[in-house]
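Please complete every field before forwarding. Incomplete forms are returned to the sender.

SECTION A: IDENTIFIERS
Entry label: holo-394
Bound molecule: pyridoxal-5'-phosphate
Molecule representation: SMILES string

SECTION B: INPUTS
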Amino acid sequence: MPGRTHLYVPGPTNIPDSILSAMHVPMEDHRRPDFPELIQPLLEDLKKIFQTKSGQCFIFPATGTAGWEIALTNTLSPGDKVLAYRFGQFSHLWIDMARRLGFDVEYEEVPWGEGVPLDRLEARLKADTKHEIKALLICHNETATGVTSDLAGVRKALDAANHPAMFFVDGVSSIASIDFRMDEWGIDIGLAGSQKGFMLPAGLALLCFSQKALEARHTAKSRRCFLDIQDHITNNASGYFPYTPSIPLLYGLRKAIDLLLEEGLQNVFARHQRLAEGVRRAVKAWGLELCARDPKWYSNTVSAIVVPQGYDARDVMHYAYHRYNLSLGAGLSEVAGKVFRIGHLGDLNELMLCSAIAGAEMAMRDVGIQVTPGSGVAAACEYWRETAPAVKPR
Ligand SMILES: *Cc1c(COP(=O)(O)O)cnc(C)c1O
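SECTION C: PREDICTED COMPLEX
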């Protein structure tokens, strides 16, 4: 089909042309004498994206899933108790991994469409007077349901219970798009993947460890080799990696961080908020509901839209793709067929997002869902017009 494919899954996201160009490089020696001139500032500037001064960043040739494993195995020993909440496919998979790696996983089932229940978390931490819980596994933005949890609230619960558990956060679909404050919120490990807010292809797991999490490696008995941060600590100190890095991805990451810092992190967060609100206005105009059950859970990077009873969201995606060249996000596991998702993160503006809303609208009508033609696009566009930055008259 001529023209661009419209990519509105919540990852991989659209890659800006300037990042594509930055990655188009001949291969070079990753042991060359001036390689640290690329790596040392890169690791330093990555800390700004995690909003940390005291943490240490790591770049692994892997994906977000490896980030979960890096966090667990570098800080904990088999049998250690961890506490988690299951409210979507990604929080589920981290729990599943922790069990498979031999940790004692305590988790609570939370309805899909809600996030971390802060009151129950605080109560559970207070009840754990022997401090058996060694770490919390928190999925900041549950990409499957479009739900964002309150990390500052998690920190408050830990403090209120005066509990020393480490605070691990999956920020794969939040970091670089939704406010994430490593130091201020006392997060011990934040982890991300390159293909979401960082606007890159998949292939890098990006992590930040607090000093407390770094210290934990000395007592953590979990087996680890390829994913051992110690080898990175040793090699990164002089600006190198323990094994061959992906050179194009590193140049891409350099460009991505430059773009994010040039725009300004606060502006990046505000842009995501405003674009997301436009999508939510569209959903309301269609007369449909989000999977997120309350505005306090609304995600600024992905919206999971519930199709009316009697329809299958997979049909909407099918028509969107085959008729309009539009990729929408699928409903995963428990919400398969019940929701489709619009990813609205990364390199994005109003008119790009209009194509996703228009295509979703057309595909819904194609399968018989009675949304008013143009209603979603109109609602989003009016919101974006009303909130558009002032422009000096000509
Ligand atoms: C995408 C995603 C992951 C998985 O990352 P991969 O890069 O596919 O391994 C984990 N957690 C969340 C919240 C995600 O959105």
